[in-house]
Amino acid sequence: MTEIVTQPGIGEHSHGYQVPVQTRSARFASTDVAEFGKPSVRELVWKNTPLDRLSPLLDVLDGAPYPYAAVTPEGSHAEWVGRDDGVVGSSQTTPEDYVSAAAWSGFEQVLSITIDAEQELAEPVVITRAELGETPRAAHTVITARHHSKAIVVLENQGDARLAENVEINVEAEASLTIISIQEWGPTAVHDAEHFINVGRGAHVRHVEVNLGGDLVRVNPSARFAGPGGNVELDGVYFADAGQHLEQQVYVDHNEPNCVSRVTYKGALQGDEARTVWIGDVLIRSEAEGTDTYELNRNLLLTDGARADSVPNLEIETGEIIGAGHASATGRFDDEQLFYFQSRGISEKEAKRIVVRGFLVEVIQRIGFAPLEERLEAAIEAELADVEV
After folding, report:
1. Between helices 348-364 and 335-342, what is the axis angle to 10°?
2. Rounded distance, CA 198 to CA 144, Å?
3. 91: exposed, middle or buried (C-beta count within 10 Å: 0-12, 13-18, 19+)?
């Protein structure tokens, strides 16, 4: 007799065989890695991921504190706290996959970043991690924006790493927070991160993911609401070179009435086996009347051999909404655009750079802090230096 091993996310069909859970809200969730099976391509969450390259994060993880640099303007703080600190779990969200649960089970201390109540920071909080090395690590970060605060928090990742982490982002009532997560890892880095965003009553959150480096990088933001009137913007920009795998699985859980969400991700790919995956899930629950949501993903293929997967999904449980929609497009350069530039004496390579720059920087220019926008535009310029004709 053949034994059927049930995996989280796999349900049993009435005829006895195993079928994947189709709705996002029905996924299994736990902070205990022992309750998950090892990742399998049979699971929806892993079906597009090269699991052999993820293997450093599938064994024992070092959860000790790691070196980091912090810039904390007046009105903000960054410190290590224990696992039993009240900030842990403040996002009211639970891991839905093995790697996220392994990171949650394995960390020893939490990097806690706090924006004090009623404070409006003139400069961003900046947390930089560089050269974490080849040791597989578990990390846990909690960002708390107290009520009526306003701030920008930048998370910078550089150098080499084998890192599994969870980032909890708790934005209290009427606060406004911009999070910029920048992945400029070295060419062999492996990074899997879940960002759990909890949007308070009347709060506004903008989460910007910039993904420019690493061998395999997955950064998956999810947002839920802790009260009515919240607004969340999930933006992303990514550039995949030959052999890179960059993955984003975005989730917005509309669980409160009269909330707004906008998701905008744009990516460019060049080189053989450059691969990106974008999955956008939006759930509008029956209690979320007055919801207004839209998600967009666009990909620009610069060369043959590159592949972009784009899957937008909507689940709607109430008809009492303002609007819900999605769009996805993947394509190559527009020949008419190239002809226009070349007819004015601009070379084909420079024309491609102009088009890609304009395509990607739209997302960055919405950050709202000019020095950081300029720095990220310069990073994209560096990627465009190698755009092929």
Report:
1. 120
2. 10
3. buried
Kindly give, in sequence order, each residue whose CB lies less than 8 Å from that of residue 220, ignoring residues fewer than 6 positions away.
193, 194, 195, 247, 248, 249, 250, 251
Q: How far apart are CA 167 and CA 144, in angstroms?
A: 11
Amino acid residing at 239: F
Angle (deg, nearest 10), helices 348-364 and 370-384: 150
Q: Where are the domains of the chain?
A: 28-332, 335-389
Mean pLDDT of 236-262: 97
Distance of alpha carbon 15 from the chain centroid:
37
Contact 179, 209 (CB under 8 A): no
pLDDT digits (tens, 9 = 90+) for 164-206: 999 999 999 999 999 999 999 999 999 999 999 999 999 999 9
Q: From residue 240, give the alpha-carbon distance in Å to each of 72, 266, 300, 343.
A: 32, 11, 10, 29
Q: How far apart are CA 260 and CA 281, in angstroms?
A: 15
Overall size of the chain counted in residues: 389
Q: Please say whether the beta carbons of 301 and 355 come within 8 A.
A: no
**Tokens at residue 121, please?**
């920071």
